[in-house]
Specification:
Layout lengths: L6 H15 L4 H11 L6 H9 L1 H18 L3 H12 L7 E5 L5 E8 L7 H4 L2 E6 L5 E5 L2 H11 L20 H15 L10 H9 L2
Antiparallel strand pairs: 1-2, 3-4
Helix pairs in contact: 1-2, 1-4, 2-3, 5-7
Length: about 210
């Protein structure tokens, strides 16, 4: 049906359904919705507006949408996303059998989608066929699904930027001193290539 032509009637319908689904008694919801729509709050007038054919049908439509949304639970959404994350193309195909029921090596065919369980078909984004009749299956984005699950379960920090690594944090104090001596020698005009450095001497001494 869609939105009502009169904006005030549409607002009345929306406000009435929202208040009823929030637990407000219908009589009070009727008056409050009528007031929110910009009308003088009178119960008789509000009831007559509620009973107008187009308004009544719009309220029924909105109530049906609200009922469907009310049944959505976070756990159900997580299950649906998890099905996408665990999807595997192998689940959609089966071996082609020869005349005696044995699999033909390297030949596969699309399974009957109506016979597959919902946890498998939930990951299916599209199904097309090539000119020679071969099926082309596209699954929903597994990476995005896994990322969503990790974030929901607290496995990802809010800031995804790569950490800045200071090389000195991964060197021992002794190695830091060798590196400092080498840099100081370079600054003083020592050759940077062709000759042995303090660091090379230390590494050579450590080789058995």
């Amino acid at each position: 049906m869609g939105c009502l032509r009169d904006p005030s009637h549409e607002k009345f319908a929306l406000e009435f359904v929202e208040r009823v689904f929030s637990g407000m008694p219908k009589t009070k919801a009727l008056i409050e919705a009528y007031r929110s729509a910009g009308f003088v709050p009178r119960h008789g007038n509000a009831r007559r507006l509620r009973q107008r054919e187009e308004v009544r049908r719009r309220i029924e439509e909105l109530a049906a949408e609200a009922s469907e949304f009310a049944n959505v639970r976070p756990k159900r959404i997580v299950v649906e996303v998890d099905r996408i994350a665990r999807a595997n193309l192998v689940d959609f195909f089966e071996p082609v059998l020869d005349g005696v029921g044995k699999p033909i090596a390297g030949q596969y065919q699309l399974r009957n989608l109506h016979e597959l369980p919902r946890e498998v078909t939930a990951a299916l984004a599209s199904l097309e066929y090539t000119e020679d009749g071969r099926p082309k299956i596209k699954l929903h984005d597994k990476n995005h699904a896994n990322f969503t699950l990790l974030k929901h379960l607290g496995g990802l920090p809010e800031d995804q930027r790569a950490p800045q690594v200071n090389i000195l944090n991964v060197l021992s104090v002794e190695d830091q001193q060798v590196l400092a001596d080498y840099l100081e020698a370079l600054a003083g005009g020592a050759p940077s290539a062709g000759g042995s450095t303090a660091l090379e001497h230390r590494e050579a001494a450590e080789v058995p």
